[in-house]
Amino acid sequence: MKTLIITAIVFCLSIITTKTLHAQEFQGKAEYVYKAQMNLGRWGAKMSEAQKKQIAARLKNRLEKKYILAFNKEASVYNEYEKLDAMSGATDSWGKNFTPGEQYKNVKTNTFVQEQEFYGKKFLIQDSLLKIDWKMGTETKQIGNYTCFKATAMVPSSKMAFWEFSWSQMRQEQGENEDGEETEKQEEPMTEVVAWYSPQIPVSQGPSEFWGLPGLILEVSSGTTTILCSKLTINPEEKTEVVAPKRGTEVTKQEYKDIIFKKMKEFRDNRVGRRYGRS
Fold this sequence. Notes:
Structural class: alpha+beta
């Protein structure tokens, strides 16, 4: 019964707000703060707290970022603010390889496009939107001036954040052990996604690869990351052209992941080869 009431409220808010927005050429701009927890894996157990703090300070520009989402009724473009590394005065060249480039989502055509640079080569990832089977709950909370509703989903971990890399994920997906030997593939791990969306902004958009709810996603958490909207402007004076990026070698999400895995395997094999070459 409670779920039906929430659904009715969401529907009514969407209808009222949509009528208002249809009276004008609608566009919005949302600023998001991205925060990720540092995950040192098995190496973390061997480090002192002082060492962990030192690494956290060096990785701050990877763990805390600011993004802009420009959106209209059908599409959005998601970009990171360029920031210099406060410690070195230079951009994070290693982390840049695994940080998402400009992302475009079109909910009408189910299109996802991302511009990405990997070790000096530009790629254009063209694919469908991430499939998310949302379960809409009854909880609400206030984010700024907007009433938000909670939704959750379980998404295969391998389908999320395809631009990132970890040795454990590569081994799991390709059926290898820590020595690079073939082993039996394990069951596909799942990641829980928790989103807070507002039907007061009736667009099916959100930060990064998240979308598919009856209102703009203002906060989303998955794994060790949280993305929270810090500022929202409806119909800003300065309009942003919401179009897909076009530069780079065209690949799918899976093809791009395969390119990353191949390159990282080459690095590993070369390192192991040098080690044995000196012995």
